[in-house]
Design brief:
The protein has strands spanning about 1-5, 10, 15-25, 35-40, 45-50, 55-60, 65-70, 75-80, 90-100, 100-105, 110-114. With about 110 residues, it is mainly β. Strands 2, 4, 5, 6, 9, 10 and 11 form a seven-stranded mixed β-sheet that branches. Strands 1-3-8-7 form a four-stranded antiparallel β-sheet, with no helix packed on it.
Length: about 110
Amino acid sequence: VQLQAFGGGLVQAGGSLRLSCKVSGINFRINTVGWYRQALEKERELVATITSGGLTNYAGSVKDRFTISRDNVRDTVYLQMNSLKSDDTAVYYCHVHFRGRDNWGKGTLVTVSS
């Protein structure tokens, strides 16, 4: 299983970024995929997940600002992040749980300047 994330960068507070993650090596369309993040000196935390049927789940801190979506033709999961805050600064990882194992991408850094 390979997960390759794109789209991180530096953005001012209040701005937007869109992350994407290409997943290969699995039947993407039948798996739940998600985004997690890890800020400096903090534990990794859930940001959002999306099931094969399109049901979404968000951390309270990002609800109404972030939107997760998926493209089952391109085997890609997206995270649209709006109204970014300095607290959103972190390395963002895409994730899929497959055959009893957690699979992670390398992560993409998002830095929000205030």
